[in-house]
Amino acid sequence: MKIATVGLSVRYPGAHEPALTDVSVEVRAGESVAVVGPNGSGKTTLLRVLVGVLPPTEGRVLIDDGPIVARSRRELARLIGVVPQREDQLFPLKVEEAVLFGRYPHLSALGLPTAADRAAVGAALVRCDVAHLVGRRIATLSGGEWQRVRVARALAQEPRLLVLDEATTNLDIRHEMEVFELVTDLVRTQGIGAVIVTHQVNLAARFADRVIVMDQGQVRGAGAPADVLSEAVLEQVFRWPVAMTQWDGAPQLVPLRQPSANRTANGRITEEKGM
Questions:
Q1: 217 Rama sector, left if φ>0, alpha if ψ -120 to 50, beta otherwise
Q2: Which of 93, 107, 214, 256 could form a disulfide with 241 if both were Cys (CB 3.0 to 4.6 A apart)?
Q3: Which are the contacts of 176, defined by CB distance < 8 A and separation ≥ 6?
Q4: What is the mean pLDDT of residues 96-124?
Q5: How many CB atoms lie within 10 A of CB 249?
């Protein structure tokens, strides 16, 4: 499966500036793509268009070279699993019940789960290491447990593309790493595609096959992390001085103190000694 945008532009009603301008990206099965950039850069808008919930003002979204608008909502739900940025726990569901909601695009007209549906839910629970939580109410889960349950629900759809919008926000280091490692493992072992919107540039560089850097509704760079995550690009996009290093072959960003010192002759920002 491949999903792509071609010349995509989006302008919200009443907005002075477009949310997206001439964005062309693609994601294929078997690869993970991280989308990074500052707040308001258009990351979430891009995801909303990719999954078919927001129509573009201009341009096209294609699934396997066919228009996404030709697909029904039920078809899209079978192809794309979404873990949204925020989600209120409105009902006192147990974990297994919450994950079963992921089977809705596969249910019969009567809406009753079959043995195949139960098997898919069980497999998703095991795959996300939450099978031991099936009897728990979702309101009693930790942040990391709830995030893994949400990923399990998306996996229960048996999608070809998994989309996560800042799914590690407010998680501690352990649970954040668990989500990234889980998604990477799913891409490797199940051959699905993954799109991860994240503010964690360093984790994106370590886990993603490709990175898309966005700013002011435009793509400022797209490609392998080592090719895209440069000091020049990140300083321009985040409007803050940074230094770049490496860890295990991946570029890593170090935010610098806002300097009160002079710039060097070539214009590169340096920090004062002793600060």
A1: left
A2: 256
A3: 168, 200, 203
A4: 88
A5: 9
